[in-house]
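Input structure tokens:
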């Protein structure tokens, strides 16, 4: 087994030297080539190219869209679209979208929350009739539990259940709610 490994390493070293060695590797990395492409030039895998990159302590050039100031200038100040920026960088518009979000740059023309055309009040009615809050600090909580908490002036304990007296789970009037403790 060790003999085969030694042969493979010798074969890679020979191919590596014949193809230009360190200088060629560095040039390809700096020109923006992927590790797959670099590996194919030298006849080894992407993983091996990655190991060589670490061995040589090389870093690929930083992409333009990783720079918050550059991205902000193109998107906010120059009013360019995601597609235009993506074409300039040679990437998918989704990549630019992700980096805008990472950099905290607000998206233009994409209203959210109450400004969105499909806003439904921040509530969702489940098939059983229960109302769930879908926005704000109470996101994910049941409306009937929030009404009971406000009435009591304290948060409910996990073992406390709120029942609807008339059986209608959409009716969250405090007169229709009853607190039951499971102890």
């Amino acid at each position: 087994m060790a003999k085969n490994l030694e042969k493979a390493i010798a074969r890679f070293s020979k191919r590596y030297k014949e193809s230009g060695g360190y200088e060629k590797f560095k040039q390809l990395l700096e020109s923006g080539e992927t590790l797959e492409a670099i590996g194919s030039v030298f006849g080894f895998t992407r993983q091996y190219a990655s190991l060589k990159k670490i061995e040589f302590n090389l870093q690929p050039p930083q992409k333009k869209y990783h720079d918050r100031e550059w991205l902000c200038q193109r998107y906010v100040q120059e009013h360019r679209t995601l597609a235009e920026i993506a074409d300039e960088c040679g990437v998918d518009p989704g990549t630019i979208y992700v980096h805008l979000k990472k950099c905290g740059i607000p998206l233009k023309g994409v209203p959210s929350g109450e400004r969105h055309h499909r806003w439904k009040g921040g509530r969702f009615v489940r098939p059983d009739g229960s109302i769930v809050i879908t926005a704000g600090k109470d996101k994910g909580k049941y409306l009937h539990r929030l009404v009971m908490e406000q009435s009591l002036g304290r948060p409910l304990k996990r073992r406390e259940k709120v029942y609807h007296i008339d059986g209608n789970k959409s009716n969250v009037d405090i007169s229709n709610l009853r607190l039951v403790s499971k102890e």
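The mean pLDDT is 82. Residues 12-55 form one domain.
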